[in-house]
Write a structure and sequence with these properties.
Number of helices: 1
Structural class: mainly beta
Strand content: 35-45%
Radius of gyration: 13 Å
Length: about 80
């Protein structure tokens, strides 16, 4: 089993964790990978969407694109789906 290539801190409890991964439609040109994940602690948490460049070995150039507000307590309702239209 291979370790994840430098993922951000992910809150993994209840329904939280790494939620979705999608590559950009022009991934071969720009190398962008998009992720949604639970972020925070059991007391203060939210869903995030971020992107990073993947060079075949590791992720770099992290950018948080969306962070759900307000933060919440507990481990439910992190759900998300990334899709290109």
């Amino acid at each position: 089993m291979t370790a994840a290539p430098r993922l951000p801190p992910v809150t993994a409890f209840g329904q939280g964790g790494l939620l979705d991964v999608a590559v950009h439609p022009r991934f071969s040109e720009n190398r962008w990978v998009y992720l949604s994940y639970a972020h925070g602690s059991q007391q203060v948490n939210r869903t995030r969407v971020a992107r990073a460049r993947f060079d075949g070995r590791a992720l770099s150039d992290w950018q948080v694109l969306f962070e759900a507000e307000p933060a919440k307590k507990g481990g439910q309702h992190f759900g998300s789906r990334l899709a290109w239209l």
